[in-house]
Each structure stands twice: as structure tokens, then as C-alpha cells.
Amino acid sequence: MPTFRNPVLPGCHPDPSICRVGADFYLVTSSFAYYPGLPLFHSRDLVRWRQLTHVLNRPGQLPLHGLDVSDGVWAPTIRHHDGTFYVVSTLAVDRRGSLTFVVTATDPAGPWSDPVPLEAEGIDPSLFFDDDGRCWFTACRDAPGDGGPGELWMRELDLDRLRLVGPTHVLWHGAVRGAWVEAPHLYKRDGVYHLIAAEGGTERNHSVTAARSSAVTGPYVTDPRSPLLTHRHRGPDEPVHNVGHVDLVDTPDGETWAVTLGVRPIEGTHTLGREVFLVPVDWTAHGPVFAPETGGVRLTERLPRLASAQPEEAAPAVRTRFAGTPLGLEWNSLRGPVTGLVEPTAGGLEITVAPEPLGSTGVPAFVGRRQQHVRFQARAELGFAAAHPSEEAGLAVFQSQDQHATLALTVDGAGTPQAVLTVREAGTSIRLAAVPLPPGEAQLAVEADEAGYTFRARHPGTGGWTDLGTVERAFFSTERAGGFVGVHLGLYATGNGRTGTGRAIVRWFDYQPG
Asked: At 123, phi and psi to the nearest 5?
């Protein structure tokens, strides 16, 4: 039987949502405090995905400054109706929904509209277009009284004015009393409305639950088979955990598949973040059956029928040369654009020494790409001459503003150039090692495996690498750092609170899976 390899989107791509238009599938995921926001992908076979754009890619569309990296843009839903694409999402502040909005486009590659605020509480918004053309908005919020900690609710969305109208309908409080219910999506099958949700939180107790009704506004009755998909009962050696937050899509030839988030832990911790897995779905008289062959998410899964041959994994680019070309869609900054701070030039990627440190909640001179493999090697060649010990530029393994490591070029108090390895945990920075380097160009590297991340430096003309140390892998894990994101590998320059005049020039950057 032809198979494919899960996850279909490796690295930090949480909360996937999917829709189909003809033979084309489109998928969006959360982006939190990274900019641009809401990456959007395209596929013809559900297995091979190519990023088209970011939905939020213009300055000022959504304020992210001052936010923790795990706040920001949460849990979008993408839908298509009558020639228009819709994405609804939430801006989260201090881990709570602050602003729910909708954006639209006639071409999924953009341009997308500016966000239109909606009068909606809570998080995890979704849209459902019924057979009569009416659009229903659903979301989750805190529940009053003793009905449960959370509830799913609904209002109609006026598509002409992009406003919520009419009465609010409380749909469901979940399948498990005392569990928070979230991530609602509605589907209609043979005249029955199926409300699919997530319960148990996005960690080990994550699960997919369901309710059904003969009317779109309810009442909804819990599907007694809930949970329909979970790995919370599986042992610690299970390769995929935290499964939940699904969205369903039908293929042109009649199959149904679900995208779901999950993590690949090693000894109980994960660093890649929540990734996108693809799961087959069968429909029965009782509702959807997820992963009917096994009841769980597999790393190797049967190929969708529309994917006629075993897909070949695209070889990642070995080297990125920043010779004046715009940065690719895989690169992100923190909380806003870094135009004027990070610029591709003919000589390489020019990064200005800005006062903002990586440990702040501002917009540092930083760009990063997702770590997508447990084993990898990242290298960069850069030129930088620090004018003060507070100035540094180099590589960052970035989990959050409070949890990261840097391998940087700087100078000591006597002005001697050196490479320095520093870790920051829970907001406190500790210098682990420093080695002198000749002035001028340097090469910096980080190599990772199941045990840890090893940092190395060398002068291009010397040949040999000098090890500065290894940081245990669990240091960068979500379980240790908290929050909801995976690791980004970045390039940066900072004056650590001082205004600098220097610039780092990054000649090239390698990312190579191990």
C-alpha cells in the first residue's frame, strides 16, 4: 500500500485549519507573536504543501508589540464561499482572547484585507456556511455558572457587513464535565450537524470530542463515542502525543481526511512545537470515525487516493545566500516587521545593531526559521566588529524571549574579539563559554540531536571548529519553557539596551537535517 510520512508540516505549525476549492487545498496555522502572521499553504494531494503567503503581512494590521511570544495570533479557521476566502482568528493577550477578527481575499495568495473586528468573546473562532447560504460563527468562551469551565457558542455572520447579528446560541459544554472545550468546527452530513471540538488542553490530555444536532443552532447532544481521537491513554513511548484540534476536508473523489496537531516527544519533552498530521476519516451512521484502521495518528499512513504515487520529500535548501534577494517565506521576525534593521544586500544579510535585546517583548533585529528536525545542523558565516562589550551578533536558538541560547560575536572589556555562548532561562542570562577569534569573518554553528544542541565557532581560514559547549535538548522544550511554540533558529544583532552604530553582514546560512 502506498504511504506517506507524517507530519505533513513539520516544525511549529499549530492549530491547523483546511478548506478545499475544486482540486486545491488551502491550510492555515497559528503564528503567535511571529511576523508575518498566519502562514497559508497550498496542496493538491494533502501531503505535499507549499507556502503561498502569510495572511497578515503588512505593518500595522495587528498590534503584537509587547506580547509574550506565545500570545499573539491564535487558532485561525479558513473557509471559502461564493468566490471569497475567509479567515477568522483571535489576537490573544496574557493567554486570553483580546480581539477576534475576520479577513477576506478573492485570491488565497493575497492580498488579504485588513482585519475586521468582530463582537466576539473567547478564542478559536470558526465559520460554517449552511446550504441556504447563511454563515454561522462559532467560538469558545468561559461558561457562567456550573455548566463547565467553557462553552461553545454561535451567532450569525452578516457577510455583506462582516458583522455578527442576531441572538447568541449556546451550543455545548463539552463531553467531559470539568474539561475546557475549545476549537469548534461544524460540518453537515446527511442532514445532521456535527460539532467537532477539542477537550483536555493542548498537552497530554488533548482529545477530539463531538456532538450532533438536527438544527444548526441546536440543541446539540454529546456523541457518546467521545473522545473520537486521542493519545492520552497511550504510553510514554508512543511517537506522537497531544493529538487534537482537528479540521475535516473532503477530497474530490469522496474521501474525508482530517488535519490535526500533535507533537513528537523524546523522553517526555518536545522542542519542535505542535506539528500538522494527516489522518483518514470514515463516515458512519454515528458520525465520523478518525483513523479507522488504527484509532490513532501514525508516522506512516496510507496515501490519499488522489495522491497517485509515493510523494518524494523535497530536499531542503542547503545554503541560503542573502545576495540582495528578499527573504523567503520561511523567515519570520518577532512582533513586527524589521525593515531598516534586517536588509538583504548584495554583500549578504545586513543586520543593524539595535538596542532591543532578544529577551525583551519588543521588535529586536532578528529573523528566524522553524526548527523542523530533531537532528539538524545550522551554520552561518558573518562579519561583525563590535564596538562595545554590550554589542553582539550571531546565531540564536530561540524558544521564547525568556528561554533561548545565543552564540555571538562580541568583544571583551579589552576589545578582544571573541565568540560567546550564552543561555537565558526564566529571564536570567548565563554566559557558559567564550573563545577568542581573529577579527573579521567568523563561522558559527549549532548541531542538534536527541541529547542536545552543540555550539561551535571557527575562523574561516583556520579549518578546525572550537566547541563552546552543549545545551541539553530539554532546555528548549515547551515542557520546560512553557507556552505554545517550538524552536526557531535565528540570526540577530543587538546592543543589549545601547544604541549601536555597527552592522553584521551574514554571508550565508545553512540548515541541513541530520
From this structure: -140, 180
